[in-house]
UniProtKB/TrEMBL annotation:
Identification of the protein by name: DEAD-box ATP-dependent RNA helicase 41
PROSITE patterns: HELICASE_ATP_BIND_1, HELICASE_CTER, Q_MOTIF
Reactions that this protein is recorded to catalyse: ATP + H2O = ADP + phosphate + H(+)
Enzyme Commission number, as recorded: 3.6.4.13
Domain Helicase C-terminal stretches: 384-547
Length: 568
């Protein structure tokens, strides 16, 4: 720890603090007053002329963002208000000084030590990992942690939930992993990562719901990579069985998770195996036999592989169910359970943007003492996506989508079009090309894995600007540049609707979902209308007046309109 006297405090701090500037997308929906209150929450008010009286900022997140031209903390990039007496580097707080000195010390050592993982008997939930690399980081009082969680929209349920972290370097991740995160452009954790990473690294089982596009994938990959890398670097035997399994419902999603895992685990003792249908089983077995740390797979193919081949799962201590509500539905549930039962008391981490009480019950039956984490506004379409619902009769839908795609004002490629059937996906993609001249690809479950990969590659690299897909691309897919989705056929459930709409926005970027609806979609009206209302989206007259919407409150505006019609 250092004293004020050790710091060069001659840099004038500004009084209008701008904490968490990096997460402004998440915060942009707050009005100015709310923002100011949030900023003021952690930062103590500062007076430029009374520097000596100001307490030294202890935690990195108490420091404001640097303004252009100002010195930046060499650890976290915030305002470098102080100078480290030992290295002469700009730093923002005692926390970052501790981290800086630990880094300097670590550079002199041959290997960086990851945070210690303690394997607990199932049911013990009182453990919290002590970060042995950075033992001097001051902890916040519980009341401030509560206030911080509330400002970041993080809710937790469970006993002794570890405190959120504010930067990746403050929880003992391997240095290489922190470096990979920086290279990937992950300057600081998103709110879900702030809470999930420390909870996961303390070996707790988790059930997590957070908005679409909020960074859930990295929140489970980071602890997995840290764990695998630590186990391998300390291991004396040459045993190379898998240490973690991630299940996801679609091949594309598994592939995407694997790609992200490779980026974040680069240079570490961390190899992956993708186990999905459509690719040759023999190659997948060969890869596993040659030694890997993480298996990422769809339940069906993984069961198939495990039945045909003897894979030693005894070292698997982390089991992730991504899109858990989907994986616990009929169709997947038995396979997911079978895989779970072949593991011996793993830490279970479950994620989705949409969770309901039935899933919670099932999740609780999988493992005891689960911590429940919820961030943002889950089970609702992401607030950053504008929902535009258009009433279109079925036979007019094609013409409507052609009109949209021909309009410079309304069409914002690259765009994803969701349909309900495989045949429909092929027919519509051909029809769009014929009517508009646009190159379009289609993706659905009847295509071969190679065709699906190639179509996705062409779409993601910008070779084609439109992809027509069934629900295959609806969940989890990080279609980075996509800002427009068109729900040509509205899905059967409001949860799938939430996921499909979510493809139009990542990390709080603004997007738009154009949704075609007509009487044939009446099964979803009762759930759809409140969702639109909550988002402030206009509700088409036909939908508002439909008898299938009866009983759903439409708010005072509609009531006034109806009464003025009935009493002309
Ligand atoms: N800390 C971070 N800093 C910057 N970008 C990040 C960070 N964490 C994740 N991302 C990026 O944010 C995007 C969305 O993340 P991700 O796909 O994990 O979202 P998600 O919460 O799983 O969404 P969905 O529910 O739709 O699956 C990705 O492009 C990812 O690379």
């Amino acid at each position: 720890m250092f004293e004020v006297s050790e710091l060069n405090a001659d840099r004038s701090p500004l009084s209008s603090v701008q904490l968490f500037g990096a997460w402004l997308p998440f915060w942009s929906k707050m009005d100015h007053g709310e923002n100011q209150a949030a900023y003021n929450l952690i930062a103590s008010s500062s007076d430029n002329n009374e520097l000596e009286d100001l307490p030294v900022k202890e935690r990195c997140f108490e420091q404001r963002e640097a303004l252009p031209g100002e010195p930046r903390c060499v650890v976290c990039g915030r305002y470098g208000e102080y100078i480290c007496d030992q290295t002469d580097d700009d730093i923002c707080s005692t926390e970052c000084k501790t981290i800086l000195l630990a880094r300097v010390a670590a550079k002199k050592k041959p290997a960086v030590k990851a945070a210690k993982r303690v394997n607990l008997p199932l049911g013990d939930e009182s453990i919290c990992i002590k970060d042995t690399n950075f033992p001097n980081i001051p902890t916040l009082a519980d009341s401030r942690i509560t206030a911080l969680r509330s400002k970041l929209d993080i809710c937790v349920k469970g006993e002794s939930v570890p405190h959120p972290i504010m930067c990746f370097s403050s929880c003992g991740l391997p240095e290489k992993l922190v470096h990979n995160l920086e290279t990937a452009g992950y300057c600081m954790p998103t709110p879900v990562q702030m809470q999930v990473i420390p909870a996961s690294m303390s070996n707790r089982s988790l059930l997590v719901s957070a908005d679409t596009g909020s960074g859930k994938t990295a929140s489970f990959l980071i602890p997995i990579i840290a764990h695998c890398s630590q186990v391998r670097s300390q291991q004396c035997t040459d045993k190379q069985g898998p240490l973690a399994i991630v299940l996801a419902p679609t091949r594309e999603l598994c592939q995407q998770v694997e790609e992200q895992a490779k980026v974040l685990g680069k240079g570490l003792p961390f190899k992956t195996a993708l186990v999905v249908g459509g690719d040759p089983l023999a190659q997948q077995i060969y890869r596993i036999e040659n030694g890997i740390e993480l298996i990422i797979g769809t339940p069906g193919r993984l069961i198939d592989l495990l039945m045909k081949h003897n894979v030693d799962l005894s070292d698997v201590s982390i089991f992730v169910l991504d899109e858990v509500d989907c994986l616990l539905q009929r169709g997947f549930r038995d396979q997911a359970m079978q895989i779970f039962q072949s593991l011996s008391h793993p830490q279970v981490m479950m994620f989705s943007a949409t969770l309901h009480s039935e899933v919670e019950k099932m999740a609780n039956s999988l493992t005891k003492t689960v911590i429940r984490i919820s961030c943002g506004n889950p089970s609702r379409p992401n607030k950053s996506v504008k929902q535009v619902v258009i009433w279109v009769e079925s036979k007019k839908k094609k013409q409507k989508i052609f009109d949209i795609m021909k309009s410079k004002q309304h069409f914002k490629p690259p765009a994803v079009v969701f349909v309900s059937s495989r045949v429909g996906a092929d027919l519509l993609s051909e029809a769009i090309t014929a009517a508009t001249g646009l190159e379009v690809v289609s993706i659905h479950g009847e295509k071969t894995m190679n065709e699906r990969r190639e179509s996705l590659r062409r779409f993601l690299t910008g070779e084609v600007s439109v992809v027509v897909s069934t629900g295959v691309l609806g969940r989890g897919m990080d279609l980075l540049k996509v800002r427009q989705v068109i729900l040509f056929d509205i899905p059967n459930s409001i949860d799938e609707y939430t996921h499909q709409v979510g493809r139009a926005s990542r990390m709080g970027e603004e997007g738009m979902a154009i949704v075609f609806v007509n009487e044939e979609d009446r099964r979803i009206f009762k759930e759809l209308v409140p969702v639109l209302k909550a988002a402030g989206a206009p509700i088409p007259r036909e939908l508002a007046n439909s008898r299938y919407t009866a009983g759903v409150s439409l708010g005072s505006e509609r009531k006034r309109k109806l009464s003025s019609r009935s009493h002309p």
